[in-house]
Design goal:
mainly alpha; 2 domains; two-stranded antiparallel sheet; 11 helices; 4 strands
């Protein structure tokens, strides 16, 4: 294939299948990309944009284009094209999540320790949720503050309550406290950090990317899928590991996260779809009046 006709935005792997998405997310969540300087990421962005404009520098190979797209997708937001903060990127989930998960499983016996590490974890999650939101829906600093306070307080209340409830329980039971708190907090943290999408809807398009309107039902579907993915991401490291913690935790935590981050992200397509028949009546009628029966599904970025 001539590079002059190279479509850098065409999926390298089939995004309609779990295995295709898994290969993609293994690539873009590679934690080594988090070590690269901003200058290298900006170079990758410049090459991607040059390719989109049909102006590929002489001597550029196909593999160089694929690698530039990998760096671009790992560090720049798909809605805005802006470089995401380092800690909020999915490529930082392995080192960041490993450190926090290890601390929560190690320091769970006292209330102060539970409070502190749940606060650290939910602060980390809030930043990740904000970074990977659908950026077409703006959120004010006040709304971010309310979302952060609500999510963190929910996690703390759950963790402390369970800690007190299981104080006289066997250690094995007590070790399930961190996962129960994380799962509950994810059900609050993500919707709260992305509340504007639920309140005002997110942009939906046809198959060719033509904008058709905003839908709150699409937002709810996308955010629900993200919640499921995040709980799945944490489940092996914070539940099954409890059974093997004493002898295997340090040996298997990093490999587990290396696999679970891309696997959880791959559960659902990032470019999500919803049937026109399931949209709000006003939006459905608008689409039918514009397109007739030619558009059966609309598409949107559900975030990660």
């Amino acid at each position: 294939m001539a590079l002059s006709s190279f479509d850098i935005d065409a999926p390298r792997w089939d995004q309609s299948t779990f295995m295709g998405r898994l290969k993609y997310f293994f690539s873009v969540t590679d934690c080594r990309t988090a070590l690269l300087p901003d200058s290298r990421l900006d170079e990758a962005k410049a090459l991607v944009e040059s390719c989109r404009a049909g102006s590929i520098p002489p001597g550029t190979t196909e593999e160089q284009l694929y690698f530039a797209k990998k760096l671009y997708d790992s560090a720049f937001h798909p809605d805005t094209g802006d470089r995401m903060n380092l800690i909020g990127r999915m490529s930082f989930q392995v080192p960041g999540g490993m450190a926090i998960t290890g601390a929560m499983l190690q320091f769970y016996k006292t209330v102060p320790a539970v409070v502190f590490w749940q606060w650290v974890n939910q602060s980390f999650n809030a930043l990740v949720n904000y970074t990977n939101r659908n950026a077409a829906s703006p959120i004010t600093p006040k709304q971010i503050g309310i979302a952060y306070a609500t999510a963190t307080s929910t996690a703390l209340a759950t963790a402390v309550g369970l800690n007190l409830y299981t104080k006289k329980a066997p250690p094995l039971v007590a070790r399930w406290v961190p996962f129960a708190a994380v799962a509950a907090a994810n059900c609050v943290n993500i919707p709260m950090m992305r509340q504007q999408e639920i309140l005002n809807g997110i942009a939906v398009t046809d198959e060719n990317g033509n904008k058709l309107g905003h839908s709150t039902k699409a937002a709810v579907k996308g955010i629900t899928q993200v919640v499921v993915s995040r709980i799945t991401m944490a489940a092996p490291g914070m539940s099954m590991k409890n059974l093997l913690y004493d002898c295997m935790f340090c040996r298997f935590t990093a490999p587990d996260l290396v696999f679970m981050v891309p696997a959880a992200c791959s559960l659902f397509p990032q470019r999500c779809s919803i049937a026109v028949s399931k949209l709000e009546p006003e939006l459905r009628d608008s689409i039918v009046s514009q397109c007739g029966d030619s558009v059966q599904y609309v598409y949107f970025n559900k975030g990660l």
